[in-house]
Automatic annotation (TrEMBL):
Keywords tagged on the record: Ribosome biogenesis
InterPro entries for the chain: YceD, YceD_bac
Hydrolase recorded as keyword: no
Domain of life from the UniProt record: Bacteria
Annotated GO CC locations: cytosol
Pfam family, one: YceD
Annotated spans, Disordered: 127-158
Similarity field: Belongs to the DUF177 domain family.
Record protein name field: Large ribosomal RNA subunit accumulation protein YceD
Biological role: Plays a role in synthesis, processing and/or stability of 23S rRNA.
Keyword Electron transport recorded: no
Length: 158
């Protein structure tokens, strides 16, 4: 595929991406992809990956399901040995291919998992207000000393 500069395009249903599916609110939808293999001017074998989809996630503020747009464009340098990683040009992410085979679906799934937000928040979700209780902040504007209570305990023991 690398020597021939092969290009693959298509769609994959999210429900077929088993590891990703478990992280989503639902497995509805498709990921549209384009994968191109080649060799660059530095003789580095690479695969360019482009993926566009919407990921159904649960907003951690509202607990409602929303669709997070996801667009990935990544160039992966194909490595046969981990020691080759330092030779990759800037802008390449390493992809270890020890057996000479690459499963496109697995690579697409890996990239989508990496694109997931740590804390999903739907756009426009209301910010939660932290209630302020009377007497919680000193009137002089200085922050309270978190160790003041320990000092009181120490002086009461003597």
């Amino acid at each position: 595929m690398v020597q021939g500069g092969r290009v693959f395009e298509g769609t994959v249903p999210l429900r077929q991406l088993e590891r990703l599916r478990d992280l989503l609110a639902s497995a509805e939808g498709d990921a549209v992809y384009r994968v191109e293999f080649g060799i660059d001017e530095f003789d580095v074998e690479f695969v360019d990956i482009r993926v566009d989809t919407g990921l159904p996630l649960v907003c951690q503020r509202t607990m409602n399901v929303f669709v997070q747009p996801c667009s990935i464009s990544q160039r992966l340098g194909l490595l046969r040995d981990e020691r080759e990683e330092n030779a990759l040009p800037e802008g390449y992410e390493p992809l270890l291919v020890t057996d000479g085979q690459l499963h496109i679906k697995d690579v697409l799934e890996d990239e989508l998992i990496l694109a997931l937000p740590l804390v999903p928040l739907s756009p426009g979700a209301p910010l939660e207000q932290v209630p302020v209780t009377a007497g919680s902040a000193p009137e002089d504007g200085q922050s309270p000393n978190p160790f003041a209570a320990l000092g009181q305990l120490k002086s009461s023991r003597h």
